[in-house]
TrEMBL record:
Native source species: Marivibrio halodurans
Pfam families: Ribosomal_S21 (PF01165)
Name listed for the protein in its UniProt record: Small ribosomal subunit protein bS21
One GO biological process term: translation
Keyword set, alphabetical order: Ribonucleoprotein, Ribosomal protein
Top-level taxon: Bacteria
UniProt entry tagged with the keyword Ribonucleoprotein: yes
Length: 67
């Protein structure tokens, strides 16, 4: 990941870097890797995330199409 610092404005570059890392999911990944997660827990978490994403997609589709 790369961010360009313009006019020695490090604060702005740092903000852009944090935003990119947030979008890529780096912070969430770091939080998950702090402690060991059993394979069964990982599978359950990923399944729950998939269900959440699917329901969100259905809500957005229902809102867009109106039925």
């Amino acid at each position: 990941m790369q961010v360009i610092v313009r006019d020695n404005n490090v604060d702005q570059a740092l903000r852009a870097l944090k935003k990119k890392m947030q979008r890529e999911g780096v912070f969430r990944e770091m939080k998950l890797r702090r402690h060991f997660e059993k394979p069964s827990e990982k599978k359950a978490r990923e399944r729950a995330e998939a269900v959440r994403r699917h329901r969100k997609l259905l809500r957005k589709r229902l809102e867009r199409e109106g039925f």
